[in-house]
Amino acid sequence: MPRIRYESARLASTLEGMDGLYVVRHEPTWREEPEPEPDNEYDNDTDHKTVYALFGLAIYKANCLEHSLVNTLALTKITTAREQGEQLIRDPWAQGFKDMMGKLIKRVEPYTSAYPEVVDDLTRSLKRRNDLVHNFWRERIQEMISEAGRTRLCRDLKADCRLLTQTDERFSRRVLDPLMESMGITAEAVEAQYAKERREAMARHETEAFTAGGDTA
To answer: How would DSSP label each residue in 26-38?
Structure first.
């Protein structure tokens, strides 16, 4: 299985109205001058299960990017409401989670137009996301028959994973992170909340995991 580098958490912020903030924690891979990442970031197998796993990972990373876009839109709504002394009646995250990536990218244009590299990343990521969702298996399923075909599929899916990771990280660094910091949501607060929720999740599933392990012994 590919090594999943994204782990989701919900930030319980002390800021009023911020208890619904979804955040994504990940290990940084984006650099000022992107360099090719080694293939050992993922399993080098080319069997059927690995292809399916890589496909799932690519879709997952697309979902993480969508979360970052939604967070940005929600936080800007909260900021505007506070500046104008208004009270939000509806959940500022609700509409974002109804929109597809293309519409989300369109809605964040006022915040990305100053960063051409981010705009370019988002454009390429949207194209790849749409291809994965709508065309990938219909157009490429026959490649699963041969070892050479599965090797090509794995290679291309890894490239999609890297693109989506880079896009999310670059967008977050340029747009989302400064917005969060301006509202007092620090990287330390996100990390602390992530650690708390991880501990709670492990505690909830500890018995289940132990039982499953016993069954396979």
So the answer is: E-----SS--PPP
The DSSP H or E segment spanning 24 is strand 21-26
Alpha carbons 143 and 151: distance in angstroms, whole number? 9
Residues 77-114 pLDDT 10s: 999 888 888 888 888 898 889 999 999 999 999 999 99
Which two tokens mark 101?
């990536």
pTM for the structure as a whole: 0.77
Q: Counting runs of H as helices and runs of E as strands, what totals does the chain give?
A: 8, 2
Per residue in 16-53, pLDDT (tens digit) is: 344 444 444 444 443 344 445 555 678 789 999 999 99
61: CB partners within 8 A, 6+ apart? 6, 160, 161, 164, 165, 168
